[in-house]
Write a structure and sequence with these properties.
Layout (H helix, E strand, L loop, with lengths): L1 H13 L28 E4 L14 H13 L1 H21 L5 E11 L3 H4 L7 E14 L4 H67 L5 H15 L2 H18 L25 E4 L2 H4 L4 H22 L4 E12 L11 E10 L7 H67 L5 H35 L9
Parallel strand pairs: 1-4
Antiparallel strand pairs: 2-3, 3-5, 5-6
Length: about 475
């Protein structure tokens, strides 16, 4: 249904004017949901849009400061700003085509006329002076100039939306790296606590083995467990360093120059998810997301280009004139007798161009179809992204519940194994295996929490997030 809405809108625009179509925004889709499945238990508020500074829903002063630093220092964002400024200047330049062109002229020279020009009449060598103005104006009766300005306006809108998209991407990446740092630090801390326990266990087993209470196998098992758990630490540290370096680049700093020690990252347990998730309706999403609005601007520009190509098929009418003063002496240059003027009108009509102009118009019509298809695809992909993230929120909750239960169960298993070991009912391998399961459960819980924060941030971005134009 949505495809038919867009196609009908485009075809109506293409038939609206003989010398060029008037752009009509594609109709918003009629669907009111993103998925056919149930929503997550976390409260979804449909019909509301996230705040423009969407990250503030996490109530983190650290994250707020990082966003401000990224806004001021990121070079991708700076490039997008300059691209928009360039497009605005191009629009100003294109808009000047509506007005006549006026040029100041002036000159002086010395000339000798020969017989070829004057015949038997002899004119002595003379010096001349002139000053005046030339005026030239192309009559835009076909609207070609207006369509070219409209096209540039649409391209300027495109660059505005690209700037919004760059800002949206930047804020999303900052949030992802921030949450990655926080939860990776928590995983490292959990692993370091376990390694401390492993060392304590190894010390106890070693002394027990020396006392003849346990076998050498038990000591080797404890030592092996410590070595195996220690192998998990370097990848986590690398993950942490990678996230820090990525965050530095987003801030517009080299990793070596950005002292993230100045940022006191929160503990994982201090972060808070928003109680409610505002989700724009599909009909609102197509008027809010920068990538959709960018595709719409491209469709608008392509539609205006058809008008430009159509106007090129018609004759071009040019009006020009000049007025000035001409004299053979500077003293009489501004006398009334030195006044000279002229008015000229001209017409240029295409008669034969090998089919170039009509082929260009057909190409412009095809470009509209390309832009319309790209627009439809962008909308559908955005709906798919929101649907995926809504279900991710649901499954993240399920995973979090399961991991929380796994941590509690693993903790109880460790306590029971230690008591049984102290009583001599089980060997040290049972205790080590229980501790390994508890570590896996703790790391799994932290990973589930990290995914939930990241996916919540991604959902807020997918439903419109924020943009620098404030819309």
């Amino acid at each position: 249904m949505f495809r038919s809405f867009v196609t009908a809108g485009v075809m109506f625009a293409l038939s609206a004017c003989a010398v060029g179509p008037d752009f009509k925004r594609p109709d918003a889709p009629a669907t009111s949901r993103y998925t056919a499945l149930a929503d997550p238990t976390q409260r979804i508020v449909y019909g509301e849009t996230p705040p423009n500074d969407w990250w503030t829903v996490f109530q983190s002063d650290e994250l707020n400061r990082l966003m401000q630093q990224a806004k001021e220092g990121n070079f991708t964002l700076a490039a997008a700003r300059s691209s928009l400024a360039q497009a605005e200047e191009m629009l100003a330049a294109r808009s000047g085509a509506r007005l006549p062109k006026v040029n100041l002229t002036g000159g002086t020279g010395r000339q000798q006329m020969g017989a070829q020009a004057l015949g038997d009449f002899h004119l002595p060598t003379f010096t001349y002076y002139s000053i005046g103005a030339d005026v030239r104006y192309t009559l835009d009766y076909t609207g070609g100039v207006a369509r070219s300005i409209e096209q540039q306006q649409a391209l300027t809108e495109y660059y505005q939306r690209e700037l919004d998209a760059a800002w949206l991407s930047l804020t999303g990446n900052v949030a992802v790296q921030y949450f990655t740092i926080v939860f990776t630090q928590a995983q490292i801390q959990a692993l370091e606590e376990l390694l401390a326990e492993d060392r304590t266990n190894l010390d106890l087993v070693t002394r027990a083995q020396q006392a003849g209470i346990v076998t050498k196998v038990d000591e080797l098992s404890a030592r092996s467990q410590l070595a195996q758990d220690a192998t998990l630490l370097p990848p986590l540290r690398q993950q942490l360093d990678t996230a820090r370096h990525a965050l530095a680049v987003l801030m517009g700093k080299a990793p070596a120059d950005w002292a993230d020690s100045q940022t006191k990252f929160a503990a994982a347990g201090d972060l808070r998810l928003p109680d409610q998730l505002p989700v724009s309706l599909p009909s609102e999403l197509v008027r809010r997301r920068p990538d959709i609005l960018s595709a719409e601007a491209q469709l608008h520009a392509a539609t205006a280009a058809v008008g430009v190509a159509t106007a090129n098929l018609y004759p071009q009418i040019t009006l020009s004139g000049n007025v000035g003063m001409q004299s053979t002496s500077t003293g009489r240059l501004f006398d009334a007798s030195s006044l000279a003027w002229g008015v000229i009108s001209g017409i240029t009509a295409p008669l034969f161009d090998g089919g170039t102009l009509r082929a260009e118009r057909r190409a412009a019509l095809q470009a509209v179809q390309v832009s319309a298809a790209n627009y439809r695809q962008t909308v559908l992909e955005s709906f798919g992204q929101v649907a995926n993230l809504l279900q991710a929120a649901r499954h993240d909750e399920e995973l979090l519940v399961a991991q929380t239960e796994a941590v509690e169960t693993a903790g109880s298993s460790v306590d029971l194994a230690r008591r049984s070991y102290s009583a001599g009912n089980v060997g040290v391998l049972t205790v080590l295996d229980a501790e390994r399961q508890r570590l896996q459960a703790r790391l799994g819980l932290l990973d589930a929490q990290s995914k939930r924060f990241v996916n919540t941030a991604q959902l807020l971005l997918a439903v419109g997030g924020s943009n620098l134009s404030g819309g």
